[in-house]
Amino acid sequence: MISTIPEHIRWFANTGKNITTSTGESIEVFEFKHESDEEVLSIWAKHFRQHYCLDEEIDFYRQGYGYSKTEFLNKIKFPDPNRAPGPSTRAGDFSEILVADYLEFILNFWVPRTRYGSKTVSNESTKGCDTLAFKIIKDGEDTPEDTLAIFEAKAQFSGKTAKTRLQDAVIDSAKDQTRKAESLNAIKQQLFYKNKLQEAIKIDRFQNPIDRPYNEVSGAVALFSSNLFEPLKISNTSTNNHPNQNNLKLLVIHGKDMMDLVHELYRRAADEA
Question: Do the domain assignments include residue 1?
């Protein structure tokens, strides 16, 4: 993964035009102002590809098939661009990874990238919480400011009528309380399998909130192509039944022709491997 802030992060633009729901919650709105910048897109595509398969692993995984690197990624690892539910899985995976980038490079969380490399069915979404992110204030010492953030993302990059995707994200976020423990274990296992033992041990801090309490932030994010972004519909989002309502962040990210960007990023990630 990229250790410095990648260039595509500059395409996140806070509009400053927050939306207020009927019950008074504030929804932050970002515009993703992506550009046709060859260098930035290539670096981003490499970063994106590493979520599914590290570059140093591809040759070993592909050799039995006799596939090229590009063929292996397109046939085995990446969701299909045409065969359902491949396109929607692409949009979902892309959105979750973009939210992970937002959490890591804008909000300064530690975000383990373990969710996609272990997928066994490329056209299906991974089960569990979408994105978990962590802040540990002082290594080896618990503090009340240590934070676990669990964000759910829902996308709509195609269609003619805007859907209530932020409400869908809120509803899914409410389920995270019951799947949090399994998702934490999944991250810890994958870090262990990758021989990242010190990172795996960090997950311990968040597995027993009763004896080792910490701050927990929930997040619900809706991502749209700009032509499908309707602030009025977004403002009708309700958080009344969310178990972490008082610590729930609401966010919208929209950008021009986002599905075209999704397909282009997957194409580059495969072709430039």
Answer: no
